[in-house]
């Protein structure tokens, strides 16, 4: 007897990858990265809007690699949190100068050295809001400071099930 259509479709789909690394060395690599994040996050089950937010977060991390380190790489990984939720990890790695104060670097309008002088904003390449955007589009964002292999900035975001977005009273039927 012929296999049901759904199982034929399932078996012909390639398995979703668990990890993918994209080298970032020239502007054009950011375009490839954007496409890779879209496909990878869709494969994990992220909806369209979070996919777009993840693309922005990854682009900001990649543009920082180009701006501050010249080159590096971004690794996309499937992750699972302790409650079993599936998510994506976007890990940006480079061998450029260290970030001495990561908390300061996360603040909009700040560089790692402190608030950006409004007059300097006109001359500098950026308003200091890239990492802030990455933080807003992530559930978890951390920095692994420089060691011999360089440093990493790691963002994780998980897929929320519909029920977790409902108010408590409705979620538990009360
Ligand atoms: N990969 C990196 N290597 C070294 N320093 C970094 C790196 N990424 C960020 N920083 C530091 O963190 C600061 C904040 O980064 P952020 O991306 O928020 O702002 P920006 O790059 O200055 O401006 P924008 O992203 O708005 O164009 C930077 O000014 C820089 O000092
Ligand atoms: Mg930036």
CATH superfamily of one domain, please?
Histidine kinase-like ATPase, C-terminal domain
Give the topology string: H per helix, E per strand. HEHHEEHEEHHEEHH
Let me know the average pLDDT: 85
Distance between the termini: 48 Å
Q: How much helicity do the residues have?
A: 40-55%
Tally of DSSP β-strands: 7
CATH architecture of one domain: 2-Layer Sandwich
Gyration radius from CA atoms, angstroms: 19 Å
Outline the fold blueprint.
Elements: H1 5-12, E1 19-24, H2 27-44, H3 48-69, E2 72-80, E3 86-94, H4 102-106, E4 110-111, E5 114-115, H5 118-123, H6 130-136, E6 140-147, E7 150-158, H7 162-165, H8 168-171
Antiparallel strand pairs: 1-2, 2-3, 3-7, 4-5, 6-7
Helix pairs in contact: 2-3, 3-6
The structure holds adenosine-5'-triphosphate and magnesium ion (MG).
Residues 60, 63-64, 126, 130 line the site of magnesium ion (MG).
Question: What keyword list fits this structure?
Answer:
Heat Shock Protein 90; alpha+beta; two-stranded antiparallel ribbon; disordered C terminus; binds magnesium ion; 174 residues; single chain; binds adenosine-5'-triphosphate
